[in-house]
Write a structure and sequence with these properties.
alpha/beta, Arc Repressor Mutant, subunit A, D-Maltodextrin-Binding Protein, domain 2, 8-stranded mixed sheet, 11 helices, rod-shaped
C-alpha cells in the first residue's frame, strides 16, 4: 500500500466541498487529475470512500473513518513545513567552525565579531587546531566548516579557495640578518630555526618552498603556538617563518624584521573546507557569505 499526501489532500477537499469540480479549483488541479487521485486512494484502501449521487460525492462510513486520520497527517505535514520554513528564514542557530592556528587566532575573530553584531542569535563554537586535525574533524562531520592554510586532498571534502596569504622569514631587530637587505637562500643555512610543528599548514609551506632548498636546516625548536614563536624570535633565540597575518603588528612596531630572500616569495591560498555530503543549511550559507564566498548557482 502506497498512500500519498496528494491523495489525502484531494480526499479532504472533496469530502469538504462535495464536488470534484470545486475540489479541483481549490487544489489547482484538473478535474480528471482530482478524480484519478480519489480513485487511486480508494484502490489503495480497497473500498469506496464516497457515495455518488449525480454530480455530488457524499462521504460514506469508510470516508468518515478516514477523515480524522487524513486531517491529522496533513496538519502534521503542514506543521513540519512551517517549522523548517521558519528556521530557514530566521538568522539563528549554532555553527561549529574549525580553523587552523593562523586563521583562528589572527583572521576569524574579527570576522565572527562582525557576524555576531549583525546576527546576535547565531552562536559559534570555534575549534583551533593545525590543518591536519581540522581536515580530520571536517571528514568525521564534527565541524560544519573548516578554514585552513595548508593543502587538502581528501576525496570527501570540497576545497574552496578563499584568501591569499604570504609567509615571511622573520628575525629580531638585533639579529645579523636584520640589516642585510636581500640575502641568498644559502645564507639561511646554519641559522637556528624556531618553527611550527609538522602537520601545520605553515610548516608544510615552509618545507615545500624553502626548507627543502636548504642544505643544512638547523631546527632549534618546534612549537604549536605562534605567540611563543614570536616571543622567542624577538628575544634573539633564532629566526622563523610565519604568516604575515601573524606578525603584521610586530612588523609595524619594528619588534620583528622581515628577511628578504632572493628569488623566494612564499605565497599560499587559505581555503574553506566543506564535506561533500553535508547539507548546507541556511546558517552555513549565511556564514560562507560573511566569509566572502557564495555557493554558485547552476
Amino acid at each position: 500500500m502506497h498512500i500519498t499526501l496528494k491523495q489525502l489532500k484531494t480526499f479532504r477537499a472533496v469530502a469538504s466541498l462535495g464536488q470534484v469540480r470545486l475540489a479541483a479549483q481549490q487544489l489547482n488541479l484538473s478535474q480528471p487529475a482530482t478524480s484519478m487521485a480519489i480513485a487511486e486512494l480508494e484502490n489503495q484502501l480497497g473500498c469506496q470512500l464516497f457515495d455518488r449521487t449525480g454530480n455530488k460525492l457524499l462521504i460514506n462510513h469508510q470516508g468518515e473513518l478516514l477523515i480524522p486520520l487524513a486531517s491529522e497527517m496533513l496538519d502534521r505535514t503542514s506543521e513540519i513545513e512551517s517549522l523548517f520554513r521558519d528556521l530557514q528564514n530566521t538568522e539563528s542557530g549554532h555553527l561549529r567552525i574549525g580553523a587552523s592556528t593562523t586563521i583562528g587566532n589572527y583572521l576569524l575573530p574579527d570576522i565572527l565579531a562582525r557576524v555576531s553584531a549583525d546576527f546576535p542569535k547565531i552562536s559559534f563554537n570555534m575549534d583551533i587546531r593545525n590543518t591536519e586535525n581540522i581536515i580530520n574533524r571536517v571528514t568525521s562531520f564534527d565541524l560544519d566548516i573548516g578554514c585552513v592554510e595548508g593543502p587538502c586532498q581528501h576525496e570527501d571534502i570540497d576545497v574552496i579557495p578563499w584568501k591569499e596569504d604570504e609567509l615571511l622569514v622573520i628575525c629580531s631587530p638585533d639579529h645579523s640578518l636584520a640589516k642585510c637587505g636581500e640575502i641568498s637562500v644559502g645564507e639561511l643555512n646554519h641559522q637556528n630555526w624556531i618553527l611550527r610543528e609538522s602537520g601545520s599548514g605553515t610548516r608544510n609551506i615552509f618545507d615545500q618552498q624553502l626548507g627543502q632548498k636548504l642544505s643544512n636546516l638547523s631546527i632549534k625548536m618546534e612549537l604549536n603556538q605562534t605567540e611563543a614563536i614570536k616571543k622567542l624570535v624577538q628575544s634573539g633565540q633564532g629566526i622563523s617563518c610565519l604568516s604575515r597575518l601573524c606578525v603584521s603588528h610586530e612588523l609595524e612596531l619594528g619588534e620583528l624584521i622581515p628577511v628578504k630572500i632572493c628569488g623566494i616569495t612564499m605565497k599560499r591560498i587559505l581555503s574553506l573546507l566543506l564535506h561533500k555530503k553535508k547539507y548546507q543549511s541556511h546558517i552555513i550559507q549565511l556564514i560562507l557569505k560573511a566569509l566572502g564566498w557564495q555557493k554558485p548557482k547552476y
